[in-house]
Amino acid sequence: MSGAANFRKDAVLRPESETDLAEAIASANSPLRIEGGGTRPVGRCAGKLLTTSGIAGITLYEPGALTMVAKAGTPLAEIAAALDAENQQLAFEPMDHRPLLGTDGTPTIGGVFAANVSGPRRIQCGAARDFLLGVRFVDGQGRILSNGGRVMKNVTGYDLVKLMAGNRGTLGVLSEVSFKVLPQPEATATVMLEGLDLRDAVKAMSAALGSPFDVAGAAHVQNKTVLRVEGFVASVTYRAQALSEKLGKFGAAKTLTNAEENTSLWQSVRDVTALGTYPAVWRLSLKPGDTESLFLKLRRLHDGFLGKTILDWGGGLVWLAADREMLMDMSMQAGPNDHCEPDMGVRVGHMNLQELAQDLGGHATLIKAPEEVWPHVNAFQPEPPPLAALSDGIRQKFDPRGVLNRGLMGGM
Amino acid sequence: MEMPKPNPKILARKAEFLAQLANILPPDAIISDPFETRAYECDALTAYKCPPLAAVLPSSTAEVADVLRLCHRMGVPVVPRGAGTSLAGGALPTADSVILGVARMNEVLETDYDNRFVRVQTGRTNLSVTRAVEEHGFFYAPDPSSQLACAIAGNIAMNSGGAHCLKYGVTTNNLMGVTMVLMDGTVAELGGAHLDAGGLDLLGVVCGSEGQLGVVTEATLRILHKPEGARPVLIGFDSNEVAGHCVSDIIKAGVLPVAIEFMDRPCIRATEAFAGAGYPDCEALLIVEVEGSEDEIDVQLGKISEIARTHNPVELRQSNSADESARIWLGRKSAFGAMGQINDYMCLDGTIPVSQLPYVLRRIGEMSAEFGLGVGNVFHAGDGNMHPLILFDANKPGDLEKCEAFGAEILKLCVEVGGCLTGEHGVGVEKRDLMSHQYAPEDLDIQMAIKDVFDPKWLLNPAKVFPLAASEPRRIAAE
Ligand SMILES: Cc1cc2nc3c(=O)[nH]c(=O)nc-3n(C[C@H](O)[C@@H](O)[C@H](O)COP(=O)(O)OP(=O)(O)OC[C@H]3O[C@@H](n4cnc5c(N)ncnc54)[C@H](O)[C@@H]3O)c2cc1C
Ligand SMILES: Cc1cc2nc3c(=O)[nH]c(=O)nc-3n(C[C@H](O)[C@H](O)[C@H](O)COP(=O)(O)OP(=O)(O)OC[C@H]3O[C@@H](n4cnc5c(N)ncnc54)[C@H](O)[C@@H]3O)c2cc1C
User: Fold this and answer.
1) Are A216 and A124 in contact (CB under 8 A)?
2) Which single residue of B323, B359, B375, B419 could bond B414 by disulfide (Cβ 3.0 to 4.6 Å)?
3) Residue ranges of the FAD-binding PCMH-type domain (chain A) (predicted)?
4) Which atom of ligand 2 is nearest to the CA of B461?
């Protein structure tokens, strides 16, 4: 065991190469808890901490081919700086979870892909999973594996790249990722409508997204419905104008063209900054048109949800938050014998929201909760039986000993 | 092409199997006459043929499930089939298998313009998906050249691409959900009208799995509103290298064209002789198309032309009308036909990093001389997906073998420079044995482990994707 002594500092495993990572996992005789930067602790699992932060660095960057290859523990900031120097970007706009979760630490590129984190532009250009071209990873048996490559089009064999995107360290620990990047737009404008209720907001966003004007962001935050267009200056001006006209029936639209204002507006949408003060936050992915029936049913659970809702992805991504008072109210629903506590409120809310999401054919994830809640809940939407069987089967193959983030996504 | 030996036990039970099929399907959905099954003996890779035991054409997901349950019980291999346009032998039967064709399942089940998706049965052809939504101004983006004939079923199984995928992505980026029947008859719903998976991205694995994990019967597809317009510019260069740099500079400049197509001299000459599109006689030619309103198009084409001029083009022709656009596209669209006029050809599909374009083209030219076979290159340059067309004479003994050997060398070269064996056509039987050039044994093993989970008896689409030697232990264990 070459580097074992080096990376075993206290109880934390910090391998500094892919080979060390493989050794660390192969020799693990109890569960490991995989961490990139520790900024996205969604769900919990027990185990010795293994951090990828020692496996870092950009391996290859070809701006003319729109591709980058980086070790999984590379800080996102380093990637962003390298891209910025060439006027390029991660177009899927990964959210920074720190403002919402109150975490610190340095988000890693491996964590972004392992959690398939995508922001407002997802509806126009795809999710993190759509940009991931290739992976190297270590599975639960300590085998070093690879899939995909660094070219844009690749159908050679099964697409395990998609499987590794969003596996949250339950199938393997990413050691290197290659991904597609895109140019930064020359200009951005936001068409803004004010005072729409949630129902009309979704309608307005649908109308915008069903137009030929290539909308690259459609969100509803605190009474403002915002629609983003990007590209060359003249084109942005033209499309913002065309969009305002198209949305005339929803009211007079304002257009925001200032670059800094646009950046900070869409950053706050991406990071749902407005929800940072709430103790419990959920994220639901639904058919946009189903938000209407969601809101009707939500009212029965607690009407406090409605005022704080943030919609992204044209209404397909719903962020819900609960304050302490709401949690206390909801905890009553657990019955008179249970403790009337915020924790119980989160559990009641979570159960209800996952049921609602399931009825609507989507999914709900608990993103933020008081620490005491986690042992009692599965943050991720349980899968229906045939899919759960397939997912469990896959986990058995990738991690037969159950040493990687065991139980984090349910199953086993 | 080596295929596993047909299982004599299955061949011996053919009559019993057909009798059982007759209990679950109407008579006109079962084809077992040896003359009629010949229609299913191959796909568009016609070099390999084998009539199946039988072919079935179910009309519903429930019928598909019944057929699979029966085959599972009796141990009969199943080859799913869409329209049979695979260029990789993906739908090639074995003598002991049943072809399960979804061609009769071609309904549009739901169109939803507010939420921008359409749900169809997978036997529906690619182009007819767009036809079903275009009166509302929408379209389904992935557009393989075979779109008039190929089915969504095959598109999903192969993760097919098209000319416009530089901007809109390939099938997997436009597929939101499927209804899929597993080999044991279980019906599973993956994804839907919402975005992204709540758990593991199983849909992402199913897309591109070449019919080996389940039979896909319904699909939810993302649709988009059509752009206001589109126009190309044609740019000629006196070297491949310069053309390659121009592609890279266009991409770097932040223009995102919907298509960047590339043709080399042999291909330009052949298409000129065939279609007379008025192309310049030069070493390399690019067709770059952009979308938007008339003004937006002018701005983008202006930028592209500006970049092109820094590379001293021998020709630069910007389209200003629908008529001029059609003229520019004419040669490109007739390229395959033009090459076919000269001789038989084999179409390869490897992808390379864009930066390797000049080197790879030069090496292909050198190899062409070594093998004594002509080759023309026409391909999607923006994403590095090459389509070298190797010319050979099918009637000349040994020419096909020489052509296949040449093809294999080109594909190995693609892998060597950091690319892959296939960008959009799939592995099928054609590139099965080259897989070990791209993947280490354990990388293939983990892929096969996925098949173990979905299809533990290894009955779905036998002998595709993985080298036979690699899959043999699993196939034996499954028996
Ligand atoms: C205040 C605080 C308290 C915490 N308490 C607990 C606790 O009690 N129990 C507990 O289990 N965790 C706890 N965590 C979270 C823990 O640090 C991580 O294990 C957690 O799963 C997410 O890691 P991350 O956010 O750094 O990963 P990110 O880099 O943000 O990645 C997010 C997800 O991807 C996975 N991941 C990251 N990098 C890779 C990679 N290279 N390959 C594969 N998967 C990867 C992570 O496991 C995680 O699921 C806590 C974190 C904080 C900040
Ligand atoms: C002239 C020509 C041009 C082409 N151009 C392109 C192009 O531009 N881009 C491109 O990507 N491809 C292209 N192709 C290749 C081919 O058209 C595609 O691979 C297409 O997606 C195959 O669809 P199909 O319905 O014909 O499938 P088939 O040939 O019937 O089958 C293909 C594969 O799909 C599997 N399959 C079929 N139905 C199902 C199902 N219901 N469930 C699960 N698996 C199933 C089969 O088992 C097989 O492995 C071209 C082919 C031709 C002949």
Assistant:
1) yes
2) B419
3) 5-184
4) 47
Write down the pLDDT at residue A42: 65
Around ligand 2, the residues with Cβ closer than 6 Å are: B 43-44, 79-87, 90-91, 102, 122, 144-146, 150-151, 153-155, 157-158, 160-162, 210-211, 215-216, 424-426, 461
DSSP H helices in B182-293: 202-206, 240-252, 265-275
CA-angle at A51, arms to A31 and A36, nearest 5°: 110
Q: Are A302 and A330 in contact (CB under 8 A)?
A: yes
Mutate to test the interface with A, among B200, B295, B303, B349 (most CBs of A within 10 A): B200
CATH fold label, B343-423: Alpha-Beta Plaits (3.30.70)
- Ligand 1 centroid, distance to A43 Cα (angstroms): 9
Q: What pLDDT digit, counting tens, does each position of B339-384 carry? A: 888 888 999 999 999 889 889 999 999 999 999 999 999 888 888 9
A89: containing domain: 1-183+382-412
Best of A34, A78, A168 for a ligand 1 pocket test (most atoms within 8 Å of beta carbon): A34
Total domains in chain A come to: 3
Residues in chain A where the model's pLDDT stays below 70: 1-10, 38, 40-43, 336-340, 411-412
Q: Which residues pair with A50 in a beta bridge?
A: A13, A34
Q: Would you state the torsion angle of the CA atoms of residues B349, B383, A75, A310, taken in this order, to the nearest 10 degrees?
A: -110
Ligand 2 mean position, distance from CA B84 (Å): 6
A195 and A127 housed in the same domain: no
Helix axes B335-342, B322-333, angle to 10 degrees: 40
pTM (two decimals): 0.94
**Tokens 């070809």, residue located:** A62
Predicted confidence at residue A37, as pLDDT, reads: 75
**Which among A155, A237, A287, A350 is the top mutation candidate for probing chain B, defined by the most B β-carbons within 10 Å of its own β-carbon?**
A155
User: Which residues, judged by CB distance below 6 Å to any ligand atom, belong to the binding site of ligand 1?
Assistant: A 33-41, 44-45, 52, 72, 103, 107-108, 110-111, 114-115, 168-169, 173-174, 405
